[in-house]
Design a protein that fits this description.
Number of helices: 2
Order of helices and strands: HH
Helix content: over 70%
Distance between the termini: 45 Å
Number of strands: 0
CATH class: Mainly Alpha
Structural class: mainly alpha
Shape: rod-shaped
Radius of gyration: 34 Å
Number of domains: 1
Largest sheet: none
């Protein structure tokens, strides 16, 4: 039977790479969330400041507010696409991990079978020695 340890190392490497990719996606999603939160906070601050200003400045705030809302919508769109990528990456990590576990289980079973065969061989040899000893004793 073929040795499975190299295959296990390859599968572990694949799982690690997929986990790193997933972690990068999570980081990007968090960055987008932080960016969105910062824009909303800045918009709230600016809205509060407009209450103290003249009506002339309100027209500038309307354009600023529209621009910020469009940026927030763009971020939301990016986050939505990123969520789909995250779901796909999670599935890939799960699949890679399942493949790794399958190979590890097969490897463990093979080792157990080899150990059981070795134990049986040793027991058979000891039985043969005991039988030969009994025969020689009876002579």
């Amino acid at each position: 039977m073929a040795e499975l340890d190299p295959l296990i190392r390859i599968r572990k490497h694949e799982v690690e790479q997929k986990q790193k990719s997933l972690a990068a996606l999570y980081k990007r999603a968090q960055d987008l969330k932080d960016e969105r939160d910062a824009l909303e906070a800045q918009l709230a601050i600016e809205a509060e400041k407009t209450r103290e200003m003249d009506a002339d400045y309100l027209s500038y705030f309307g354009a600023y507010s529209d621009k910020v809302q469009k940026e927030i919508e763009t971020i939301d769109c990016k986050r939505s696409k990123l969520e789909n990528q995250i779901k796909m990456a999670q599935d890939h990590v799960r699949d890679a991990f399942a493949e790794l576990k399958k190979v590890e289980i097969i490897n463990d079973r093979r080792k157990e079978e080899e150990l059981a065969a070795l134990d049986k061989k040793e027991a058979d040899e000891l039985d043969e020695i005991a039988i030969d000893g009994f025969r020689h004793k009876g002579e």
